[in-house]
Amino acid sequence: MRPTYVEVDQSRVRANLQAIRAAVGPAKVMGIVKANAYGHGIIEIARLLEQQRIDMLGVAFLEEAVLLREHGIQSPILVFGGIAADQIHLFLKENLSFTASSVEKLRLIDEAAAALKVRARVHLKIDTGMERIGVHYYSAGKLLDAALQCDHCDIDGIYSHFANADAADLGHAQLQLERFLEVTEFFTQRSLPLPCRHIANSGGVLQLPDSHLDMVRPGILLYGVYPSAECARTVAVQSALSWKSRVAYFKVVQPGHPVSYGSTWQSDHPTRIVTIPAGYGDGYFRALSNRSVVIIRGKKYPVVGRVCMDQMMVNIEGGTAYNGDEVILLGETEGALISAEDIAEWAGTISYEVLTNINTRVPRVYVG
Ligand SMILES: *Cc1c(COP(=O)(O)O)cnc(C)c1O
User: Fold this and answer.
1) Fewer Cβ within 10 Å of end Cβ, the chain: N or C?
2) Ligand 1 centre from 137 Cα, in Å?
3) pTM beyond 0.85
């Protein structure tokens, strides 16, 4: 196996799920496993969540859901994204839940289900202030009316998505929640059973207890990372992912001899430089050049010079490191910690992108 790998502590994912359940109960939990389970490995995480009797799994698009079914995952799966007409039969064949985000799509689903003599599982998508997919809250009546006309669909759920639930100012999120609840009155006014209502992402779980409703949809929180710096940390979670490598080379570099492409860094005295076999081709952002640190033998040392595609250099000054020593790119050891938030800040992005950017050529190892 490559010396550069991601280690996922499954016991932490289980503990995070337990903490979320305790905070939102009796609301159900949909575990979000899109984007390779935020870099943690979609198959293994879906298996773990299924073992924990997760109520539902959420993915971005059809292929992610089909992959889960191919690996024996039987839990209900909701596909968030828009659907192309030619994908509908696959949803039905694999017993996946549709997101119906327009009257036209809903009719296509109903017709396909009728033709195949099966029932389609549908969640209606209401746009309450994200302007992504879904019918606007102010014209949702026509989608709901159309849903009542569908004889071959089970309207299992109705949902919306927050744009700012992880912000310090929750005004917009509150407004979205009010708009959503007003739309769902449609069912109570007609004495119809309410479908499962869900709107809360990790930010909603943490900051808006009123938004938990019938089900919550945590993604990043399940993996032990908070959605933003300003978001209240009302549920205690621990980061499940570490990214590790090993020292591949040691050399002493003389002053006036710049390191790596572009010669962007040099020392004014002789210094010890080690090479790490990881780079932007693995998802370690090139923007981290001359900005990030790694941990070797419990100490933090800076990445110097440009991060290359497959390798990068670290200045250990007078420190000690031998070939084969463990290097922590993201994670913790005896008191030293590099979080996804740290890397995000150095690279000018968010922790979501740090995690999802670690690509598939980095093997995943599971512990716990
Ligand atoms: C990604 C996603 C989530 C999870 O968001 P987090 O901020 O990671 O909790 C929930 N719902 C939908 C529709 C999503 O696309």
Assistant:
1) N
2) 19
3) yes
**Res 335 pLDDT > 90:** no
3-state SS, residue 334? coil
Model confidence pLDDT, tens digit, residues 122-147: 999 999 999 999 999 999 999 999 99
- Catalytic positions are 34, 261
Same-domain check for residues 264 and 215 = no
Give me the amino acid identity at 163.
A
Q: Does residue 45 line the site of ligand 1, with CB under 6 A?
A: no
For the stretch 285-309, pLDDT in tens is 999 999 999 999 999 999 999 999 9
Residues 249 and 275 in one domain: yes
Q: Would 3 be classed as within a structural domain?
A: no
- The answer to whether 124 and 80 have CB atoms below 8 angstroms apart is no
In the numeric block, the tokens 């709107």 are attached to 199
Three-state SS for 292? Answer: coil
Ligand 1 neighbourhood includes 279 CB (under 6 angstroms): no
Q: Is the CB of 41 under 6 A from ligand 1?
A: no
Closest ligand 1 atom to 227 CA: 7
